[in-house]
Amino acid sequence: MGVDGTSDETPPGGPPLRRETSRLLSFSDGVFAIIITLLVLDLQPPRVERGQLLHALIEQWPAYLAYVSSYLYVAVNWLNHRAAFNRVENSGKALQWYNLGVLFSTALLPFATSVVSQAMRDGDQADQRTGVVVYGLVGVLVSVSWLGLYHYLTRHHDLLDQTVPRRFFPAERARAAIGLLGYALAILVGYLVNPLFALAIFLLLPIFYSLTSSGLYELRRLRHPHG
Amino acid sequence: MGVDGTSDETPPGGPPLRRETSRLLSFSDGVFAIIITLLVLDLQPPRVERGQLLHALIEQWPAYLAYVSSYLYVAVNWLNHRAAFNRVENSGKALQWYNLGVLFSTALLPFATSVVSQAMRDGDQADQRTGVVVYGLVGVLVSVSWLGLYHYLTRHHDLLDQTVPRRFFPAERARAAIGLLGYALAILVGYLVNPLFALAIFLLLPIFYSLTSSGLYELRRLRHPHG
Amino acid sequence: MGVDGTSDETPPGGPPLRRETSRLLSFSDGVFAIIITLLVLDLQPPRVERGQLLHALIEQWPAYLAYVSSYLYVAVNWLNHRAAFNRVENSGKALQWYNLGVLFSTALLPFATSVVSQAMRDGDQADQRTGVVVYGLVGVLVSVSWLGLYHYLTRHHDLLDQTVPRRFFPAERARAAIGLLGYALAILVGYLVNPLFALAIFLLLPIFYSLTSSGLYELRRLRHPHG
Amino acid sequence: MGVDGTSDETPPGGPPLRRETSRLLSFSDGVFAIIITLLVLDLQPPRVERGQLLHALIEQWPAYLAYVSSYLYVAVNWLNHRAAFNRVENSGKALQWYNLGVLFSTALLPFATSVVSQAMRDGDQADQRTGVVVYGLVGVLVSVSWLGLYHYLTRHHDLLDQTVPRRFFPAERARAAIGLLGYALAILVGYLVNPLFALAIFLLLPIFYSLTSSGLYELRRLRHPHG
């Protein structure tokens, strides 16, 4: 990292050696692609007595529900990543680590998915509460990592493409905060009321995210057209 | 997504920030590469008594057949994806989700492959019927996701490279519809007649797809040379 | 595919839509990267009684040997792939399938590695013979797939970069044929004499490949400087 | 490889066929992305009696600690790889193999992580010592592979971008040597004193690496401004 803390890619007295974010993008695309595909490893043919396969496959429904929720969630994360980094011109060590934080938290989703789907299928009420809390905590962690990334980009407008409006990343940050509250709410509802309600929120949150993608920003732009 | 619904990449008053589909392509290539390679995880050395390895490896033949079928199927899906997106100039939120739908359904193939190969090896007739129905349903789902994507591209010619003939994506859509019928037929035949017949159809369908790739379009072009 | 069979990327009357081989390369790089990394999944901490870990880890030596051999082999395959496709300007449906054939056979290596390392550790002499035959057959299959690809490129010089000498791909084809013979020899020696000898050949063959990479071609060029 | 040993990409009498390191980068990004994501496969929902999930998840704490340490370590390796190859203009067969050596040793991390986390959870004192020795040896191996790569690049300044200062790679080499000593120290401390101390060093070393990234170089540059 240079002394000025903005980039480790500009050698003293020389031009940038290469497009700054190209490897960050290819590495991140790889990680998202693997995470979204690893989810399917949690779907396994049940080991059952001969003749019981259909029944056992149907009994796995929590695994399918968890798979769909997590697939949507990772997909939304990837779309968010794309929307954010399409607007970033330069990185630097700090942004690299914020990005690695997002990848770290997202990479925990297959584990959380596996825990919650196994708990819903085989566990008692206490296990199911544990399962939704684990999944919810990973959701909170993912939201926090995005919050950090968006906050950093809000405060480092110089790293962005010049055409990006000042209000874009604050709006994204607000969306991440809403996600954080959503997952926190799911933990509470799942723990105090019913784990199934938490599952429903886990499914609804990525749908909300998808629908409002850039939506909050559009809304604000309509209100403050010169922002 | 912009108010006009065509793209979220053009900031107000600015040019496109970057080649629109580059990350969609790199993410999709990653997912296809992982799916096609995960299939091999279903091939495992059998855990048997000493001296029984050869016999046990031969008894795994349904796993090898399922592996070859699914490898061909994922390969054909990737070739289709390449043929389609080589012709796409711009994406947008809707196209992103159609693409994520294709990746979602294709990602279920290793699971379906595992179910059918285990059912053929260890299950009774009922399990085998269940196995081919599961695989067939995933095939139907994959076909439906392509149908949606091709239909969307047929109706949004403005997203395409200008040199793409108007009849290209309708022809692809027809091919997807034939695939849908093929997998539905395999389910019926496998359920009512014999699961082995369904396996044969599962192997033949990707071969058909591969041979007719762009073939239907060529055929139509010969008939309507000014299309 | 066009009527002329060379490429499906040139729409009638239009220029090539995009760099022809870019997605073939990114997909193939993904598959090779996954195969080479999946190999490590065969290395697992042994499940043993407390206090037996060190002993059990040492007893796994065939797994380490198989891992190193297969890592080298996949690495050499990737280097060969890079050397070949750095010289290819245009693809087409046939070349796509030759490439998918190479990826198919290479993707079987983690399975074969797992079979041979388990057989060496837990099996009797018959199992060990089976193991080396399975690994050797996959090696033969990989060699055959390269033979096909090199033969195709030898006969389709028009797909290549103009600066590629006519003798390059015939020399590569000869190298693939030597590999085929090497793996066939390993099967024979492993089956008739001693499976350990086969393991040694499996380790030596990628080393040979690596050392002679472009070596045969250099040799021929020295003899026929105007080739 | 050419007779001069620097590159296999320049055919006799022709220009370089393509950007030299592009496939090395995309393959390496793929491998790092898979390694960092495979780590999560070691986190599995514990198979326990109904009602014991929470307790069992908490008992897995060594797996979480090992996961975090290894995630940081792979992340730092990727950042190092990016920092190094952003400065490389040309490769060649030798550099390819040094790079494959780095990928080989890094790919062993998920295995070592699995061994150490299982030993900390289920093993006795002897197993735990074995576990930290295995992890430490992989850390030594990773450091040695970087040492080799940095040493090679120090001696082949002609492969680098012209703006790279002469002192950059010697400083990186020194950092790799410190890492080697760190992991060797962890082995000693873990074996002779307490495995938990070794775990702490495994967590601290990537943090040290991250903080000093390019730091030693900056330090030297301040002292020798004309280097």
Q: Please name the two chains that share the biggest interface, counting residues whose Cβ lies under 8 Å from a Cβ on the partner chain.
A: A-B, 40 and 43 residues
Given the helix and strand composition of chain A, which structural class is it?
mainly alpha
Number of E-type strands of chain A: 0
Main beta sheet of chain A: none
Unreliable stretches of chain A (pLDDT < 50, length at least 5) are 1-18
Oligomer: homotetramer
Transmembrane segments (chains A, B, C, D): 24-41, 61-79, 100-120, 132-153, 174-193, 199-219
Subcellular location (chains A, B, C, D): Membrane
Membrane topology (chains A, B, C, D): Multi-pass membrane protein
Catalytic activity (chains A, B, C, D): K(+)(in) = K(+)(out)
Structure description:
Four copies of one chain form a homotetramer. Chain A has 227 residues and is mainly alpha-helical. The first copy, chain A, has one domain (17-42, 53-223). Helices cover 71% and strands 0% of the residues of chain A. Chain A is built from nine helices and no strands. In chain A, helix 1 packs parallel to helix 4, helix 3 runs parallel beside helix 8 (195-212) and helix 7 (168-192) packs antiparallel against helix 8. The A-B interface holds A 25-26, 29-30, 32-34, 36-37, 39-41, 43-45, 50-54, 57, 71, 75, 78-79, 82-83, 86-87, 161, 163-165, 168, 210, 213-215, 218, 221 and B 1, 3, 8-9, 11-15, 17-18, 23, 26-27, 30-31, 33-35, 38, 41, 93, 96-97, 100, 103-104, 107-108, 110-111, 114-115, 118-119, 122-124, 126-127, 130-131, 134.
